[in-house]
Amino acid sequence: MALDKDQLIKVYVLRLVSSLVPQEFGQEYIQSLAADLHSYLLTGMNQDSKNTDVNQLVDHFKKQFLSRGLMQEWILFQQILDQLIQHRSIDSIVNYLILLYHLQSGSNSNSQVNQGNYIQSSPFNDQITSNHNTPILGHSNLNRPTSENSNNSNGDPKATFINSASNSIPLQDLIHPYYESLSDNEILAYLSYTLCGLDSKLLPISKINGQDGLQIQIPETLNHSYTCLLTSIIEAGILYDWLKSSVDMKKGKLPSPIKTAYLRVLELELSNYLNHITSLFNDSSKIQSLLQVYNQIQGQILKLRLFYMITKENIMTDKNGYEFLLQMWKFSKFGDSNISITSKQIFEQISVPYYEIIEHWIIKGELVDNNDEFFISYNIEENHINDIIQFNSKKIPDFFTLVNKEIGYKIFQIGKNLIFLNKYCKELNWINNYNVKYTQFIFNVHQGLKSMNMNLINNLIRIQFDETLNYLTLIIFQKNLMFDHLINFKKFYLMNSNDFIESIIENGSSLFSKTSDSLTSNQLSNVLIESINSSTIKNYPLEFVNRLDARILDLTHGNMGWEVFTLEYKIHDLPIENIIYYDHGLLEYLKMFNFFWKLRHLQYLLNEGYIEYNDIWKNDLSFILKNSIKLKKASNLNIREHQQLWLLKSFKTIGIMRNQMIMFITTMIRFFSIDLVEDCFHKLIIEKLFKSKNPKHASNSNNQKLAIFNKTFAKSIQNKKIIGLEPELVEHNMNEYTIDELISIHQKYIHLITNYKLFSEDQIGKVSGDSYIKNIYALLEIVFMFIKASEEFGMLIRNYIAITNIEKGLQGGSNEEYDDDLEIIDDKLKLMFNQIYNQTYLQDFKSTKELFVKDLKSDLDLKDLSRSL
Annotated region Disordered: where (predicted)? Predict the structure, then answer.
């Protein structure tokens, strides 16, 4: 707080007395002497008894000095006292005391005075921006007469010294050039031009070479006190000139609407400043002295300093508009009222473009931010909606999260839902009605978001979020049947429809046994149509059946039809494609289809082998089987009879091995289909998507469906209303999720299946030291080798029986000519059997399976599977 004149006189009188009275008088006496002098200056100078009081005061001081032999000190003190009491006004006394103090300070520091009196200032001086209390103008160097040392010993008062005996200048000569000055009226006549950044005769202005600033020359006849005061006043003119130049330089060139809005605020502030200066100098009653001018524009100087700092840091740099907006918000909460009030006014204006961005986004789903100032942005290099529209939670401004921390996320989802419903779902009528309703509420009922308080904005965002999410759920699950398509993906890609897959394998077995380059689209289509007509799929709605297609993968996947065939369930025409296929979702399904297809193919071949062997057993080996009882009881058997008994035994043994492999394949298929796929589907799809999971409505193997929607509209819930706005929400049985959440739910579901530990290369068995999937593929390869070997073994048996039947059909002919053929076949059969039993089954399949089962037993999650195997 500034000192009043009474306090100033008191302070400077004490400083003066302390500098003139020797310390031997004691501090208490010095303070008493200062108090007496201060009291006289304030109360005694206008009284009739002035001369008497002065004489008494002088006599009192004289006795104190002379009693201590301090003649020279008394002469100096008396001289200053005589000069002081000559002043008739308080202002004159204050100025004289301040002048004496500065003269003594300057003399003690032996400062040198430069020729020429200029004030130079560049607004880019770091000192300006670092401390608002530091005047923007530097201290002036005054062209004043210098003192010369003299020595006078005759006791003449005119020869007394103000500082010390070594620096001798008469006090009157020393004071005169500093105290005499231009009159206030003469300075005021030109000052208004300087404050407006204009040149004048008294205060000429020139540019500083190589710098962006002004140089103002101060008249040499101006005293030091006026120079300091004038320096502080002229700061406003220099600030105004720099700010005006900055506006002219940046106007129309800033890409940021926030910064552009600030320039409009700054232009208005500069215009108000000019009006204030004009009004001030047009009314002579308001200003009659420089001190009055300073008092009138002191608030303007502080405000211009703030605008200077803001402009330099934000407009003259590449700082982002969002950062600028956030800075103004923080400044508006500043403790200093001058800063907070001005910053709040600036914030109110520059935040308008930011609110306009939000208005476009939540009404139309349009992003009008071209300067990366919003917390939502587009990545035009991406193709999927989830990658194109990006959300940056770190850029949500504090002033928007005061009421609700989640408001930024909801704003993001509102616009994203609108884009999805418009661009992908083509719900143009609903979008248009939504647009009209909220445009009317925001701009007709209110005057834009900026006119609303944060509680009202929060309620508006909540209602828009609920309404868009409710309609999105309706479109995704009722109109586009996402849940039904997920069931179909499970049926076809994850082979949950057993009879259909078996029908494809059976109808296409001969075709799939051909080389992949010989397959045609027409052949695959015929197989698919036959399989649909011979399975329960024929009873499916055409909406789903028509989406099925058969195709082959890239020929690099294999050489045989079995290796490259795949089903395709098309949803390219539906917006749910963006949810299910996100992040290569289709490839995840195809990968699982390929694996399950191998299992089902092997299961089919094993079953075919079982049927083939049953036919051999019942037909080809029937006569051997009939004689086997007799042969077993006979004591002497010939070579042919031994061969026949061995043939029956080996045939049965291969059947037993096949059954073991069928059990293994069947157990693996059941585990993957029920314990893995169905369990994941129930936990991550049904339980996540539906509010009520009533068992009688639950989806199961019979494809019964959960109830999804009612046909009636729900009444608006009271706590979801705001004045003038009532959302229309549809009552349904679905949990409402955003696009991001739906994608996440589906990804977790399919990834939990495809990344299951039995499919992972990183999951190593504790016993075998190999990954689970490596052992599974090894076992599948062994099964395939067994199938091929057993097929060859069956063919040899049929050949053996055929030759035997030929022998039996010969009448009176010799059988010796067929002995060699039977012996060759018999050798092949024994060799083949030994290879199947010892190598393929015992050494390969059984040992590998045992290690695999031990690995499963050592894993808590897979113990149940190990028991089944």
Answer: 135-159
* Rounded Cα–Cα distance for residues 347 and 349 (Å): 5
- The mean pLDDT of the chain is 81
Cα separation, 189 vs 200, in Å, equals 10
C-beta of residue 65 within 8 angstroms of C-beta of residue 74: yes
Q: Which residues contact 661 (CB under 8 A, 6 or more apart)?
A: 606, 783, 786, 845
What b/e sequence results for 216-236 when a residue is b if at least 16 CB atoms lie within 10 Å of its CB, and e otherwise?
A: bbbbeebbbbbbebbbbbbbb
Tally of CB atoms within 10 A around 786: 25
Task: Collect all residues with Cβ–Cβ distance below 8 Å to 365 and sequence separation of at least 6.
Answer: 414, 415, 416, 417, 418, 419, 422, 431
The DSSP code for 202 is: S
Helix (H, G, I), strand (E, B) or coil at 164: strand
Element of type H or E holding 731 = strand 730-732
The encoded tokens of residue 577 equal: 């494609």
- Buried b / exposed e over 332-354, threshold 16 CB at 10 Å, is beeeeeebeebbbbbbebbbbbb
Give the C-alpha separation, 297 to 488, whole Å: 79
8 A C-beta contact, residue 256 and residue 211: no
Q: What's the DSSP call for residue 735?
A: P
Q: Which residues contact 283 (CB under 8 A, 6 or more apart)?
A: none
Given the structure tokens 């149509």, which residue do they identify? 529
**The token pair that represents 390 in the structure block:** 């990006």
Q: Other C-beta atoms within 10 Å of 774: how many?
A: 15
* Position 311, amino acid: T
Cα–Cα distance measured from residue 857 to residue 438, given in angstroms and rounded to the nearest whole number: 62
| Cα 33 to Cα 19: distance, rounded to the nearest angstrom | 12
Which residue is it, tokens 């204009």? 198
Tokens of 719: 């706590």
586 has pLDDT over 60: yes
Angle, alpha carbons 218-140-6 (nearest 5°): 100
Residue type, 12: Y
221 band by pLDDT with thresholds 50, 70 and 90: confident
**Spatial distance between the Cα atoms of 490 and 484, rounded to a whole number of angstroms:** 10
* pTM for the structure as a whole: 0.74
Q: What's the whole-number mean pLDDT along residues 18-42? A: 76
Quick: pLDDT tens for 538-584. Answer: 999 999 999 999 988 876 656 788 888 899 999 999 999 999 999 99
633 — pLDDT class (breaks 50, 70, 90): low
Q: Is the dihedral of CA 406, 407, 410, 415 positive or negative?
A: negative
Q: What is the mean pLDDT of residues 648-662?
A: 93
Mean pLDDT in residue range 782-806 = 90
Q: Where are the domains of the chain?
A: 1-111, 185-304, 352-479, 483-569, 600-686+735-869
Question: Confidence class of residue 224 from pLDDT cuts 50, 70 and 90?
Answer: confident
Q: What is the pLDDT of residue 134?
A: 30
- Using an 8 Å Cβ cutoff, are 297 and 277 in contact? yes
Dig out the tokens for 136 from the structure: 């923007």
What is the distance between the alpha carbons of residues 598 and 563, in angstroms, rounded to a whole number?
A: 8
d(CA 94, CA 172): 18
CB burial of 727-762 (b: ≥16 within 10 Å; e: otherwise) equals: bebbebbbebbbbbebbbbbbebbeebeebebbeee
Show contacts of 597-600: CB within 8 Å, 24+ apart: 597/495, 597/562, 597/565, 597/566, 598/780, 599/665, 599/668, 599/669, 599/672, 599/780, 600/495, 600/501, 600/502, 600/505, 600/669
